[in-house]
Design brief:
GO terms for molecular function: ATP binding; ATP hydrolysis activity; kinesin binding. The chain is about 55% helix and about 10% strand. The protein has about 350 residues and is an alpha/beta fold. It has a five-stranded parallel sheet with strand order 2-3-4-1-5. The structure holds 2-acetamido-2-deoxy-beta-D-glucopyranose (NAG) (2 copies). One 2-acetamido-2-deoxy-beta-D-glucopyranose binds near residues 143, 166 and 174.
Length: about 350
Amino acid sequence: MAAGRAGGAGAAMPRAAALLWLLLPALAALEPLSVGLAIGAASALTGFLSYPSFYCSYVECCPGEGQRLNASALRAQLAARLFGQHVARDVALRAAAGAARRRSPRKALVLSLHGWGGTGKNLLSQIVAEQLHPAGLRSRFVHLFVATLHFPHRHLVRLYQEQLQKWIQGNVSACPHSVFIFDEMDKLHPGLIDAIKPFLDYYEQVNGVSYNKAVFIFLSNAGANLINQVALDFWRSGRQREEIQLKDLESVLSVGVFNNKNSGLWHSSLIEKNLIDYFVPFLPLEHKHVKMCIRAEMLSRGHPVDEKVVEEVIEEMTFFPKEEKIYSDKGCKTVQAKLNFHWDAVMRDAKAES
Ligand SMILES: *[C@@H]1O[C@H](CO)[C@@H](O)[C@H](O)[C@H]1NC(C)=O
Ligand SMILES: *[C@@H]1O[C@H](CO)[C@@H](O)[C@H](O)[C@H]1NC(C)=O
């Protein structure tokens, strides 16, 4: 069916389609094949209707023209799931508010997320993506590229460039609100950065397609050491972490990221042309934030919070700097694995006893 007909829901529903709407739940109880057939029939029927709401409750649809990032929903999600990142949270909210204000944006929204591993960069991109596409990373309109996974070979850069451009073009044609997340941006070949660049720029259209409603999110460790240093300086001078403001970090980001040949070269061409709309810095996480991650992970798996286990997991993690041991080496990254390990051990013991 014609993709890209991203219209608002609630178009007039013909009688036949209304009938299908009544039948679908009944069919769902039967078997996947009949549901598939019904959805096929529905899609044939409604292809011209620009996605009525009943259809979109069974098949994921591209959000309509009026759809915007909802800042209050975003705020609630960030408060519940992203810990210890007041600066990143505020910048993300500002970006969402900005995107909501602009009825016809002049360029794609481009966020560049910086910080140590496990501090929440992936989580934040996921939360932002979910605002536009509730299925998040599973959505067919959300695309995650990991540099070392998807583009590992230098000698294939030409091929990757072509592929990537074709994908971005194809996906944005199908859904203007497509979200592209690039992880390990600092490991992405400069040739691929060049390939993405036209899509980020202030063009009305590129080859007949407008990219102004797309969202690009870049993740990297670039500048992380300098961000950590700022946090540590605040701590050592007895100031509150919450006093750290974007401006305290922006300066180190520009120096650290853009003048550092090892990690930052990729950025300079994007910076020079002002293609990045928001820099989002992630602070290193303290004990109390990692504990929040552990508790949240327990709850999300349907376990009650067990403070004894929280302490045990924390106990196994390492913290820096060597003397003060304030910040988690791996942020919250290993929390899931450590909890799995813990629960496996509990199961084993229970089996051994019985
Ligand atoms: C935004 O999200 C809030 C909280 O989830 C919700 O109450 C509100 O209706 C949403 N606004 C729009 C325009 O969707
Ligand atoms: C959309 O992107 C994916 C990669 O995430 C790719 O496999 C697919 O072919 C693209 N779709 C189009 C229509 O280009």
